[in-house]
Design brief:
Elements: E1 13-18, H1 34-49, H2 54-59, E2 62-63, E3 66-73, E4 82-92, E5 96-106, E6 112-123, E7 125-126, H3 136-143
Antiparallel strand pairs: 1-4, 2-7, 3-6, 4-5, 5-6
């Protein structure tokens, strides 16, 4: 298992979204698995901000499936909450990369409350499902954003 420490390294990509009713469960809170969707939203928008949208990787015959994920729940999110998704690229290796996340909600006091923190690890595979190195140009761009870059 990967290191469970979740630290956000600069630059941190920040985006906001509103919780829709369909993301909640019978208890009126966001269903736990939907936080992985929020992680994906943050990751996708971070990559787009680097001019590396996933569609460009797919055009090159590459896919970055999640091979590992971790979530630590701290407080619930509810329907119509405006949440903030922070995403940080923290590691790029020859065949994989890791993103860290935190999801926050602004409280009435104006302070942000941590709802969830976690990470995802992604392998780089080709269309045949074989592990393949992250192309050097993509690796260089990604590595500039993380500690080992």
């Amino acid at each position: 298992m990967s290191n469970l420490t979740i630290s956000m390294t600069e630059p941190v990509h920040r985006m906001h979204c509103r919780v829709i009713y369909g993301d909640t469960d019978a208890g009126g809170v966001v269903y736990n698995a939907n936080f992985l969707r929020y992680f994906e939203m943050g990751r996708t928008e971070m990559m787009r901000s680097l001019s590396l949208p996933y569609s460009r990787m797919e055009e090159r015959g590459l896919i970055l499936p999640v091979t590992e994920s971790y979530l630590r729940f701290k407080a619930p999110a509810r329907y119509d909450d405006l949440i903030t998704i922070d995403t940080s690229l923290v590691e790029v290796k020859k065949f994989s990369c890791r993103f860290n996340y935190r999801i926050l909600r602004e409280e009435d006091s104006g302070r942000e409350r941590l709802l969830v923190k976690g990470f995802t690890v992604h392998a780089c595979i080709n269309r045949q499902g074989r592990l393949t190195p992250i192309p050097e140009d993509i690796c260089r761009t990604m590595a500039k954003l993380c500690q080992n870059g």
